[in-house]
């Protein structure tokens, strides 16, 4: 029922097939990002914009000197959980290793902004973010583990 190493939890859940998972990740949902925060701490978990590429790579942008980036580099991996409530309750969770960290560019910022914002707001946001968010990095992750479900209209 589930992909890879996950066990089915309840019979009414229907795992998504590969095409459904990829299509869902290609949609502009806000993800819940999580990374190990070290011994004695719960994972750092925050909402984040992400981009999904056709080769299966997921990437995020974050400030070079942020706690988030420090924890990503220390852990070497992170997870994203993406969900929606309508028209049915559906989620996809991915977890995997960081495969690259690189300086982000204005083009990355523009691409990410265009994914989430109305067209008329993109350039204004890009200008604001490039002036106010500091140096950014792009972190690429290759999902190794997937967990997905469509709960229907329960």
UniProtKB/TrEMBL annotation:
Give the InterPro entries listed for this entry: F420H2_bilvrd_red/Heme_oxyg, Pyridox_Oxase_N, Split_barrel_FMN-bd
Know the name of this protein? Pyridoxamine 5'-phosphate oxidase N-terminal domain-containing protein
Q: Which organism is it from?
A: Streptomyces pseudovenezuelae
Residue span(s) of domain Pyridoxamine 5'-phosphate oxidase N-terminal? 19-147
Its ancestry begins with: Bacteria, Bacillati, Actinomycetota, Actinomycetes, Kitasatosporales
| Alphabetically ordered keywords of this record | Oxidoreductase
Q: Which Pfam families match?
A: PNPOx_N
């Amino acid at each position: 029922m589930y992909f890879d190493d996950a066990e089915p939890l309840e019979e009414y859940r229907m795992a998504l097939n590969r095409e459904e998972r990829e299509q869902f990740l290609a949609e502009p949902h806000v993800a819940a990002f999580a990374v190990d925060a070290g011994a004695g701490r719960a994972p750092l978990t925050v909402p984040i914009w992400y981009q999904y590429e056709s080769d299966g790579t997921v990437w995020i942008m974050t400030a070079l000197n942020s706690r988030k980036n420090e924890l990503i580099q220390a852990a070497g991996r992170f997870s994203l959980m993406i969900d929606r409530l309508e028209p049915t309750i559906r989620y996809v969770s991915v977890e995997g290793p960081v495969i690259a960290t690189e300086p982000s560019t204005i083009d990355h910022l523009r691409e990410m902004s265009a994914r989430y914002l109305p067209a008329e707001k993109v350039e204004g946001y890009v200008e604001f973010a490039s002036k106010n968010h500091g140096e950014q990095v792009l972190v690429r992750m290759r999902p190794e583990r997937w967990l997905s479900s469509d709960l229907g209209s329960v």
